[in-house]
Design goal:
Helix content is 80%, strand content 0%. With 328 residues, the chain is mostly helical. It has one domain. The longest helix has 33 residues. The protein is globular, with a radius of gyration of 22 Å. The mean pLDDT is 78.
């Protein structure tokens, strides 16, 4: 009972956080202006094309996950794997990180595969995705360093806040204090549930990483990993052409926006709501897009993608029991 209450409270807290960020971003915007732009000044064919690219990325993610599962001695049906992935995306909109557990649960149920081993593959998959994102971030830093410096120069308060945080005596003392406590209490910490969960997590990671090591077609895995993130980027960039105020921006502007917005998705809020919008708007301002226009761009780009995930996720939930009823 306590666990259920905790989950409900966590859902409410994360959702509230996202809503607050979203409200702070849009509270001063002219709603009538936004409606007018969405009604008269958007080329929705680019939005449709963007969603089609998103579907391709989901299929590629399905194929990549299948490659990771094969070394476990199982070969699940691609349709079940795809539907499990879509259920995972839907559940992430309910509670952050819930999608990883949900899609493993779906596949474990319908394909009779060890849930723990599937978790291991997903943990490894997330690690690979984080590495890809960090590589893209490095590319943006090296190629757009001047833009970032210009942004900091024109916003001295950002530089001041970063300096205050990084060189804060309270932060330094706090970190040293925490490290000392961990060292002194290391024996007791090893007996805590949290430590045991971390150890179990590492074991699951090792299991998933082992699946990559024993993978027959490693190049296909690498190819899908690159393709997924390339499509993610192009998926956002083509939305630039749907608006007059972003249609003239460069591909590198699109990459910068994509990378910064992706870190908004890492925030512990459902579907990156609020955080994704904020990061996208701030990225667009680096390239001269007015914040009022950036809010419209972020609203449509995020809502269209989220809408597709909700639709596909609900379809997956309805279809899964039907196509697997003979097997049960």
């Amino acid at each position: 009972m306590k666990e259920k209450i905790f989950k409900v409270l966590k859902f409410i807290a994360f959702l509230a956080l996202g809503i607050v960020i979203f409200w702070l971003v849009y509270k001063d915007q002219d709603i009538h202006r936004i409606k007018n732009i969405l009604k008269n000044d958007v080329n929705y064919w680019w939005i449709i094309f963007s969603l089609f690219l998103g579907l391709l990325s989901h299929i590629s993610r399905t194929l990549r996950w299948s490659l990771m599962i094969e070394p476990l001695g199982k070969k699940p049906r691609l349709l079940n794997t795809f539907l499990a992935v879509m259920v995972g995306y839907l559940m992430n909109l309910v509670l952050p990180r819930m999608g990883e557990i949900s899609r493993c649960g779906v596949l474990a149920r319908y394909e009779k595969i060890s849930f723990t081993k599937l978790i291991g593959t997903v943990v490894t998959e997330r690690l690979i995705d984080m590495i890809m994102l960090l590589l893209l971030l490095l590319l943006v830093i090296f190629t757009q360093f001047g833009k970032l410096l210009h942004f900091i120069k024109n916003n001295p308060e950002v530089q001041e806040k970063l300096s205050e945080i990084l060189f804060s005596p309270y932060l330094i003392i706090g970190v040293v204090f925490i490290l000392l406590i961990i060292w002194i209490c290391r024996s007791r910490i090893k007996e805590t549930k949290l430590f045991k969960k971390i150890v179990e997590f590492m074991k699951q990671f090792a299991e998933g990483f082992h699946s990559i090591k024993n993978m027959k077609n490693k190049w296909a895995f690498v190819g899908h990993s690159v393709f997924i993130w390339l499509i993610y980027y192009v998926m956002l960039y083509v939305v630039f052409f749907a608006f007059k105020f972003t249609s003239g921006l460069s591909a590198m502007a699109g990459l910068t926006t994509f990378v910064l917005a992706s870190f908004g998705m890492v925030a512990p809020v459902q579907g990156g709501i609020g955080a994704w919008h904020f990061m996208t708007i701030e990225a667009l301002t680096l390239y001269g897009v007015d914040k009022s226009d950036g809010t419209v761009f972020a609203l449509l780009a995020h809502s269209s993608t989220t809408g597709m995930l909700i639709l596909l996720g609900l379809i997956a939930l309805l279809v899964l029991p039907f196509i697997n009823r003979r097997a049960e």
